[in-house]
């Protein structure tokens, strides 16, 4: 999987488009799933790694209430700027997931939604999640399962291969590199020192208003922007529209683990 890693970097207006369109269509429905998996509750200190524009961190802030605290960390300054404009109840920090600027055992819960696949040093990131959790703390992360579970993204990847080329298609396939076998993900977490590691497949739905909106938002608010010119849009839309609707299924693997309490 290492050769398929593509950093998620957005510039210009892309973070705003991402927050306005991609978050409600793809990511927001998964936030409560992740919070439930981690057992986030009142008074918890929560760290959201690769937080993007902050949908999970903002939801966590509602759950922890006034006695808890939430920190969101991301490498992308533009994403954090959008997150900070949406809520002031979260402390937003720019940092690499593999080098978190936080002390040991400072959090009760650590979360990561659909971001681990873009981290170049996944082992380092998971070790950092483990380091920053207190004994008895829980980590929950979400990654997408294999591409064939998500026919809309599969169709767009095929369209990119046909219309633009293999580099653009690789960008679209990158978020799905963990596939369906839970063992590599479980082993990654166990190697960092997590115990009681569990990986569960969950089904969800992607909802765009139209195939045109789906394709245009993906081009404008993802790393595809560096590979796909606006002149390609019409052909991409026609290709995808002939194969899938604007509302389609997607599947995720939700992985949880604990920091062992010793003594």
Question: In a nutshell, what does this entry contain?
Answer:
The protein is of the alpha/beta class.
Structure description:
With about 260 residues, the protein is of the alpha/beta class. The chain has one domain: 3-Layer(aba) Sandwich (Rossmann fold), CATH 3.40.50. The chain is about 40% helix and about 20% strand. The protein has 10 helices and 7 strands. It has helices at about 15-25, 30-40, 55-65, 75-85, 120-130, 150-165, 165-175, 185-190, 210-220, 235-240, and strands at about 45-50, 70-75, 90-95, 105-115, 135-145, 195-205, 245-260. The chain has a 7-stranded mixed beta sheet. Strand 4 (about 105-115), helix 5 (about 120-130) and strand 5 form a beta-alpha-beta unit. Helix 1 crosses helix 9 (about 210-220). The longest helix has 14 residues, at about 15-25. Mean pLDDT is about 95; it is low at about 1-5.
**How many strands?**
7
Task: Report the radius of gyration as a whole number of Å.
Answer: 18 Å
Give the total of domains: 1
CATH superfamily assignment? Vaccinia Virus protein VP39
Provide the CATH topology.
Rossmann fold
Number of helices: 10
Task: List key phrases describing it.
263 residues; alpha/beta; Rossmann fold; 7-stranded mixed sheet; 10 helices; 22% strand; disordered N terminus
What is the topology?
Blueprint: H1 14-27, H2 31-38, E1 45-49, H3 55-64, E2 69-74, H4 77-86, E3 91-94, E4 107-113, H5 122-132, E5 133-144, H6 151-163, H7 166-173, H8 183-191, E6 195-207, H9 211-220, H10 233-241, E7 247-258
Parallel strand pairs: 1-2, 1-4, 2-3, 4-5
Antiparallel strand pairs: 5-7, 6-7
